[in-house]
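Make up an example, fold above all:
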Amino acid sequence: MRVIAGEYKGRRLDRIEGTDIRPTSDTVKEALFNILGDAVIDSAFLDLFGGTGGIGIEALSRGAKHVVFIDSDIKSIKVLRGNLSRLNIKDCIEVYNVDYSRAISKLHKYGKKFDIIFMDPPYSMGLAESALKAIDDNPVLSQSGYIIVEHDSKEDMPQNVGRLHLYRFKKYGNTVLSFYKSIE
């Protein structure tokens, strides 16, 4: 696993071997950031189900001003903290070892808003739709923000979840990126 572009381009990131954690492939990561383009620059970015931090670190490398990492697995959080430390990233991040639904509720309570929310939950467990519902109930997405859900191609994502509307999806092998935005 490596950073593809930007300030940390080419830097290797540790991952957890032999677990159910499935890092986003370089192909999907590159496609995601090509689609997002300049929207990443100066953005507030939420890496939900962040694992070892590959997507959030890529966002920082490409100019995000602040990234919040959320994951409930302590092993992932330890590797994530190690990756951030090795890259000497300290100031523009927050890392929380907590369940996604509690995290979303607390982020809303504290008035946090994100321009980009990326989520890559464990596949085929219904967590993506549940997280979208939590975001709709606790609006942490900025008015013009995007939510991107990485999921298995066999998993159907809903067209609408409350005010969140699926407006684009792209398939890469067995992986799909589904893009949501708020319709007010």
